[in-house]
Every structure is written in structure tokens, then in C-alpha cells.
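Table S2 (text version). Query chain:
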Amino acid sequence: MNQKSETNNRAAVIDLNDLLKKLAFHWPLYLILILLSVLGAFIYLKYAKPRYMSSAKLYLKDEKKGGGEEMDMLKSLSLFNSGKNIENEMEVIKSPILIAKVIRDNHFNIRYYRKAAVRNEELYDNSPFSIRVLSDTANIGNYVFDITPEINGLKVKANYGDDLTKDFTVQSGVPFTVGHDQFSITYSTPTTGVPGINDYRIRVDSIAELAYEKLDDIGTALVNKDATVILVTYEDAVAARAAHFINALLDTYNDYTLDDKNRVALKTINFLSVRIDSLRDELGYLEKQEERFKVQRGITDIEGTSKLALEQVKDADIKLNDANMQLSVFDQVDEYLNAPGNSYPFAPMLGTVDQTLTAMINRYEELLKEKNKLSLSLQPSSMIVQNLDGQIEDARNTIKNYISGYRRNAGVAQNQMQQKVNQIQAKIANIPAYEREYINIKRQQGVKENLYLYLLKKKEEASVSYASNVTDNKVIAPAFVPEKPESPRKTMAFVGFLAAGLALGTLYIYLKYFLNNRILSKTEIEQLFELPLMAEIYQDEEETAKNFSLQNRSVLLEQIFNLRTNLRYLLNEHTDSTTILVTSSISGEGKTFLSAHLGNSLTVNKKKVILLELDLRKPKLSKFLGMDNFTGITNYIVENKSIDEIIRKVPGTDLHLISSGPIPPNPAELIEGNRMRTLLTTLKERYDYIIIDTAPIGIVSDAKSLAPYIDATLFVVRYNFTLKSKLKAVAENIREGHFRKTGIIFNGIEQDSFYPNYYYDHYSYSQENLKVKRWFSFFKKLKHRLA
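Corresponding C-alpha cell output:
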């Protein structure tokens, strides 16, 4: 197991080295890709739409994260709870309602462009145009106005609705109508450029749609988990607008939070003012009634006989009125709780009614405020909102139940006090009528006066609270106009394009070599056949391939001689005439070419060699040698021609050839017949070597039919041509023992490709020829390194 693992690791290292060598071999490809990547980055940076990011820091006071003595003192003066939840406030800042208000108040939905061929240039602060929306801006649709300034006015093409267009000419400042909306465009001659030459575009976007689009461009985050400082960021195509938008958003948010606090305070002050005005009128009426009573009856003082009864009934009436006041307040609270659609309570002054009830109502108010804030950013169907509605309903029911019980107790107390008042009044009945009437007037006057002073005090407290209402938010770092775009960044663009170019080049090389289904290296052949190669044959020019001179000393000839030498080692125990079969997996791998050159090389030392063109289906050997195949093996088998009639000498060589003859309809039957056996037996008696060029083994069974007569079989594999799947079938036939003494030839290796440079030594005997072909070889190598 360890040995196998070590072998796998070594193979992995070799594969990595192989990949690195392939990458280095294709350096011109990478050079071109780098140049193209740099060019692409320049083009991208020139025409890409920039995005600028601006940021601001907002400080919030959060009761959950402290507040100090100052907050406690304000709470003691204020009637309202001003605590905040930072996470909720971060959502409120990104609320579409606030964003829509910012867009509407600052006209961020209107954009001006100078039209260009590739990308329109946006004009933010220096546009020669100004468009006004004269209709309802909240319901404005999406409009695009293409404007061309002319001498007689502005030529406008409006696009709106579902691919609707309208062409017209309008004067500067004159209202016009497009769709359901009315506009006016004011034009001033630009300070730069030639007037009337440039075309312009104005976009008027829907505020509601644009508000939701802006949500993705706005970011909120805490500076750190222990702070109450929010970092607010915003991205825009215009640097100045990025800063202006975020500053406007924070200002709108501050106004919203202050308005939210003031609305509750104002409702309370208005309620107290109405009650105080009513009591003032009642006190005035009682004072005038006392004055008329004294004038009409001439009374200036009430004797001490009535003082004791007056004080008793006054004390009882105060308690009775206090109970009545409590019941009145309960009725108001109950009315508020039962009123549908109330978002802000008027927060009535509960006085000494009950601190527990006051706490319940404060809790109820907090839940209402929380719901109002969440409704800005969440849908009513949200689980959070539904949960909050349940809490509000529970708080409302708790208050109602508490008031119901308290009202019963207050009713009992009221009845008791009323009984006490009736008893005192029965005692006063003995007092003279004048004195009794005077006592009643003073009693009512005292009760109203005490209630008036109490409500006046509460109004002053509410006024102090309203005056002390300030926003709890502070912009501690306003947004700035960014100098450099957030995207695209030059460094990242160049790195990205270079990385993409290098990755594409590496992917191409990986696909070319590692996912190629064709044979590219001798290692692949040796792994399939588990046999060493007998020879590697470089691809050469056509003139050299058809040159059968044994004196030219070309690279091809040296490789053929090397094949002849290795063939002798393969047949070292064989002493008789030798029959050699040359085949391949598919057609086109060069078996005909190698049969001819191998046979020619074997004629050295006066050896007799004959070539048999036994690819009866698709004969090529005769044509390659420049001869015809009108008469050949089929004539010998079918027409009983003699051997001497079909043997011909190959011009310019010592070779002999028996061509295929006419193509028969049944090649397999002819090859397996007795005449073929007789032919091969006779040729063995006359020649030292018989070279048989037969059909591919991966297509037909001709080679297997000849196997019993064969002494050695050479299988041809062609570089970047032979399919691995086909070669596996050939390897299987060899392992099954159908052929004796087999050898593998790697043919057609491209001299300037990767594998010859990696595996083989490139050489040449002719320095003069090398100088002549230097530039041709250079460009050929460059082509292979690029491909």
C-alpha cells in the first residue's frame, strides 16, 4: 500500500512538472494574452461606468447602551419615553419612505446627460438644462427626453409608457404635456462646447421605483458592537451626488425622528389647553355668580356659624370631584383604546389616579411607536409586525381590564362620598337660605379653581418637555465627495484582466493536453501497451518523405535506420526469411509511408525486400511509390496470374512491389484463401524481407487473418491523430496474443511542438540547411507555441 501511494505521489509530481513545462513552452501565447489583458483593462477603465462611495457617521443615543445623568434628568422633566433600538433605527434609515422623500425634495430622480457615441456623460452640477415637473411629483412616471437645441427652440423626443414616443419642439420655459404629466424645460447656453452641437438627454424616473432601487446602494453598519455610532454608506455614478444624497438622507432622518417625538407632545398640550380653557370659562361664570349674589343680597361676609359646615362639605366635594375626575380620565383612556386607527395617543394626565396604570399606558405607547417605525421597512404580513400587533392587543386588553376594576372601586368611593355630602347638606339645611346658597357657590368655585391650577401645572410641564425635545442623533462625520471611484479600481482591473487572461491560457493548455482524446506523447503509448517504443518518427516535408535515396542522411533516414536496428533486436532469434506486418488502429496513421521507407532501409547490404499492398479495400502504397495498381494480388488470386507477372521493381530503389490490383468485393475471403498462403510461402523462398501493408486492425479483421504467417507485427501510432479509444482496442489484441513479436512506432511527431522539445532531442546534420530555414523554423515554432 505504501509503495502504491508513493508511486501515485511521484506521478502527481511528474504531472505538475509536466504542466509547468507545457506552460513555459507556450510562453508566446501567454505574452499575447498579457498584452490583450492590458489592452482590455485599458478599454474597460476608459468606458466602464464608475461608482463612487461616500460615507457618513451618525451618533445615536440608545437607552440600552447607556445615556448618563443628562438622559435621566431629561426623562424626569419629560412626559414621554425617547429610548431607541439601534438595529431598528438602521432599518428606518433605509426605509423606502425616507428615501422617497429625499429623492422628491432634492430632485434626485431627474438626471441630465450629454449624449456620446459610446457612453453618455452625466451632467450633475453643470447642466445647461433645468426641467420642472408641474404635475404631482409623487406619481411621476418614467420619462426620457432626447433634446437637440436649435435656433427656433428645443427639439424634443419623449419616450414614455410602453414604448410610446412623442416628437415636438418647445420653447425654453414653456410648459408642455407628455402622457399624464406636465413639464417645462429651461435652457441656458453652456459655457463649454459649441452651442447647438451636442445632443442631450434628460431622465425623469419614478420616485417610488427609484427609492427601492436605491436600497441596494445604501449600507448601514455599527462602527463596533459596543458603540452607538452608525456608518452609513452610499454608492453613485456621480461623486458629488453620492455625498449630497447621504447628507440629505441623514438630515431627513433627523427631521423624521424629531417630528415623531413632537407629535405626541403637541397632542398632549392641545388636550390640556382645551381643558384649561373650559375650566377658565367655568371659573369666570362662578365668580360673576358670586358677585351678583353678594350685590343682590347685600352679603359681605359669612359668619363663623357656617364655616365649619362649609369646610366639611368642601373637603367632601373635593374628594368627590377627584373621583369624578378619575372616572373622566378613565373614560377618555377607554375611548382612545376603543377608537380604531389611532397611531399616537394623546397621553392624558393621569395625576394621582394610579402609577401602575400610567406604566401600562407608557408601555402601550412604546409598542405603538415601535410598530410605526417597523411599518416603514416591513410589510404588514411580516412575522415581526404580527407579533408586535399581538403585544399591542394584549397591552390594550390589560389596560381595559385594569380600568374596569378600578372604575368599580371608584364608583363605590363616589357613592360613599356622595352619601357623606348628602349628610352634610342635610345639616346645612338649617342654615339660612342666603348663607346656604353662598356656600354652594364658594364650594363649586373652590373645586374648579383647584382643578384649574392642577391642569395649568401639567400644561407647563408638557410645554417644558416639548421645548426640551431635540433630536437624539448627531452627524459626527458628514459625507464627503470621494476623489477616487470605488469601482472600477485600476489596480484591481489590471489584476483581474491579467488573472483572467492567464487563467484562460492555462485552461486552454489543460484542455488541449490533458483532455485531448488523441495520443500526444510516448508515455501515453507505453502506458497503454506496456511496451517500449521501437522508434519515433518526426514529421517532415513532403519532398523528404518521398525521397528514397539512402545517401541523403536526413533526419528521417536516420530515424528509419534506427527503426531497422531495433527491428533486428526484435528478430534476433529469427534466421529465416522474415515477414513483417505493418498496421495501425485507424486509417491515416502512416503505415503505408513507414512500410515503404522501412522496406527501402532493409535493402542495405544487398538484402532482397518486397512490399505487399494488402490493404485491398483502400490501397495507397502503389500511389505513394508513384506506381499503378492495375495488376496485383487480386489478379494472382482470382485470375491465376503467375507471381512473376505481378512482381514489379520500384523505380530508383532496390525494392520490389506487389500491388493490390483491382479492389475485390470480398477482401477477407481472398486473404484467408489458399492462394494467399501459397503466395506468402513462395515469396519467403525468394526474399529476405516481406513487408505487408495491410488494413487498420481497429476497422477490419485482415491483419488478424494474416497473423499466422507473420513473424513480426509493427503497430503505427500517429502524433495528435490516433484516438486513445481506438488504441485501447489494439493494445487488447496484443495482450490476447494474436500477434507474435510486436513493436510500436510513434509516427508523425511535429518537430516544433511541445513533446519533441520535451521528450526528444532535436537535431540536424546540415548546418547549411539549418541557416536557410532559420526564419521559417522560427515562425513555425512560434505558431506551435501559440496554438
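Notes on Table S2: The first helix runs from residue 2 to 25. Confidence is low (pLDDT under 50) at residues 1-14, 66-83, 191-196, 757-776.
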